[in-house]
Write a structure and sequence with these properties.
Layout (H helix, E strand, L loop, with lengths): L2 E3 L6 H10 L5 H5 L2 E2 L6 E2 L2 H4 L2 H13 L14 E8 L2 E9 L4 H7 L2 E5 L8 H15 L5 E6 L3 H9 L3 E6 L2 E6 L5
């Protein structure tokens, strides 16, 4: 059964296979292959991450971004990265921002996610979002802001399936609020 977990080296091979499924211009972005520790932005490419030691460093830095005391690059807030895995298969990733800057409040929101192309249309994005809500609640986030492009019907449906309440549209983005606490 797919589970949302902290990034792990156990899915190294599958992570690389998922990377190959994305169009080249979006591979690094959708795979979350950027970190911001020490006030610097570091980007990894597939060739670097194919090396086990470098993948291990990437996983450690990605996990370190959740530390509220971490020094992050300008404009970056602490965030928790979670991966949806099924055994040793990497299915997708989710980022949960611990706080919102004015730009994130306007357009970005608390939670962003992506599912590898070969695993889409199976409900995994909804599973990730629903499984992340208790994590958001533990971080004191309630409700969570989620946004999606106005023409992204799949993402809109995911957000609504998780209880998202539509607020408005701004700059081509739909904005939704999702309760994270269950009563």
């Amino acid at each position: 059964m797919p589970t949302l977990v902290e990034p792990t080296v156990a899915v190294h091979r599958s992570f690389l296979l998922a990377w190959d499924e994305f169009e080249p211009e979006v591979q690094s972005r959708w795979m979350g292959a950027e970190t911001y520790i020490g006030g610097e932005t570091e980007r990894w490419d597939r060739e670097q991450l194919a090396e086990p030691a470098e993948f291990e460093r990437f996983v450690a830095e990605t996990r370190g971004s959740a530390d509220p005391d971490a020094v992050l690059a300008d404009g970056i807030v602490p965030y928790t990265s979670l991966w949806l895995v099924d055994g040793d298969e990497w299915l997708g990733r989710l980022s949960l921002r611990h706080e919102l800057t004015p730009p994130l409040l306007e357009l970005g929101g608390h939670i962003g996610y992506c599912v590898r192309p070969s695993a889409r249309r199976r409900g995994y994005a909804t599973q990730m979002l629903v499984q992340s809500l208790p994590v958001a609640a533990r971080l004191g986030i309630d409700p969570a802001l989620l946004t999606c492009d106005a023409d992204n019907d799949a993402s809109r449906r995911v957000i609504q399936a998780a209880g998202g309440e539509f607020e408005d549209e701004r700059h081509g983005k739909l904005r939704f609020w999702v309760a994270t606490h269950t009563s």
